Amino acid sequence: MAKKRAKAVKPARLGKAWTATDVAKLRSLAKQKLSARAAAEKLGRTRGSVAQKALLLGISFRAINQPKRARRKK
Prior knowledge:
By secondary structure, this protein is mainly α. It contains three helices and no strands. Helix content is 42%, strand content 0%. It is flat, with a radius of gyration of 16 Å.
């Protein structure tokens, strides 16, 4: 029998409009050199919504270096 996956916990602010205070916090977190994921946790939003808003505002977050995927040998 297949195991059931636990459903992801959705942030409480799902689908809410960005306020001026939220944008100010977003800018502040970006200046602190946090990742988009860490900023999303602090703002109570999804990483995707934070990344999209940052893109629209021209804000960049710290890039997290992820290991390159191993390539399959032919």
